[in-house]
Amino acid sequence: xxxxxxxxxxxxxxxxxxxxxxxxxxxxxxxxxxxxxxxxxxxxxxxxxxxxxxxxxxxxxxxxxxxxxxxxxxxxxxxxxxxxxxxxxxxxxxxxxxxxxxxxxxxxxxxxxxxxxxxxxxxxxxxxxxxxxxxxxxxxxxxxxxxxxxxxxxxxxxxxxxxxxxxxxxxxxxxxxxxxxxxxxxxxxxxxxxxxxxxxxxxxxxxxxxxxxxxxxxxxxxxxxxxxxxxxx
Length: 233
Prior knowledge:
The protein is mainly α. It has helices at residues 6-23, 44-58, 65-72, 76-83, 86-100, 104-111, 115-129, 140-143, 151-177, 187-206, 211-222.
């Protein structure tokens, strides 16, 4: 984690500006040309993406406000004006992450004909998404919860992970009901196994495991699935 000296740097700049103003006959506090509020170059979407990458790389707790102002290239007043406090910014980041990077399981559940197909596709796409170059590895929703001591944030991330598992369980139960999966299938345990695989693959990706290695892990994970029934309707 980089050390931030933003506040000190700002203070020095302000003192310098005040001295210059006095020497030019400009009243202190009214430095000519001094920007007010957000800089003209402020791009909210770009700043939000930079915040997303910072939280993704370092987690929620370890990413300070001074870290955020540095990577977003804005002052603290601009950050608070545009996004609210750190927790509000993180909530928005998680929403953007879910849409831009983490929606592959939702698409798989919506588009694949069976729970097994949806899980297999999810694990395969996780292997790719979690190891793609150009952004931190693993899953932000998994990694940001590590060492998190803010109860509201910790609970929000837990709720997201549990909702994902519940979606798989619902789909598995539906397949059991129509005979695609055997009647004795433990839908809750199978869904929980899927969640454990997704979360474990995220951490393995953080540890440097390659896409090909994660794909082989996914193949083994799918081998424990019960045989499908004879339902053809």
